[in-house]
Amino acid sequence: MMPKKTTVAIVGCGGMARHHIRQILRMSTSGKQTDATHIAVVCEPSAKEYAATAEVFGEAGLEAPPNQPDLGRLLADYGERLNAAFIVTPHVYHHDQTKACMEAGLDVLLEKPMVMNAAEARSLIEARDRTGRLLVVAFPGSLSPQIRTAVKMLRAGELGTLQGISATVWQGWGPGTVNTWRQQPEISGGGFLFDTGAHMLNTVVDLAGEEFTQVAAWLDNYGRPVETLGVIIGRLASGALVTLHGAGEAIPSCASEIYVFCSKAILRTGIWGERLAIQRAGRERLRAVRVPPSLGVWEQFVAVREGTMPNPCPPEVGLRMARLYDAIKASAAQEGAPVRCD
Fold first, then answer.
1. CB 265 within 8 A of CB 156
2. 34-48, 120-134, 212-226: range with lowest mean pLDDT
3. Closest CA to 94 of 131, 74, 120
4. pTM more than 0.90
């Protein structure tokens, strides 16, 4: 079966969008999904950011697509030529832009975190169901072959009973995001734990595959407008225990660790699914698990659109993560008092 061509609008052309665009363009040169994606138009209000994006296309020997800074106009002018949108904008815009694109008949790949809170997550699930469009949240962890392999093992009971999960992410995020929208809570929705740390929250809830029932959290803004440090303790519906540690004032760096403890094995991975190793009962050390290589979230989105794989990161996963972050904020506001996740 010939692949279904994806004609996409890129909404937002900041640094992360340019990273994704490079990955999309690499797919053609690598022989993966050749000619399966056409970037028809972009939506970027900043002339500076659009110029930087045009350079990315120039480096690939391609002409930059046109820019329509107003999303409403873009959907009116280009909607009939498009079948998808990739939304890579500040967090506060995600809900309205995604809803507008789905209502215009487009499938959507939405950059993380999905929305600002659980109420917005439920609204996008309703819009997805009502329009019948595809909505995939662009969490590299959930979309990675490593996390999909780990989830398959965990759900099959291959590793035994889940006992606990320990996750840590660290980055020089606080000093690195000064004077950007990421430290403006009305736009970002939160700090380090809702930005880079969102990968940790999402991957942990994906691996767990069940709801948190209780959370106790302590957050520290470190003198900044949003939190950059955080420690969370949680209990899952099964009774398994979870610890989460976000260190956003680290020395210049960006890395993570996740350990999943089961009755028959220990699993080690990262919040972006950047590796996978397992130590089974009777073994002396962790051993790497071989998985198929991936070029990133767009490759997985195209595969979902083509029907060659199920959606590994639907808005329900985004809702689970939003509910967790809402509970984290509620507990932190009460100086770490445990709160129910309902």
1. no
2. 34-48
3. 120
4. yes
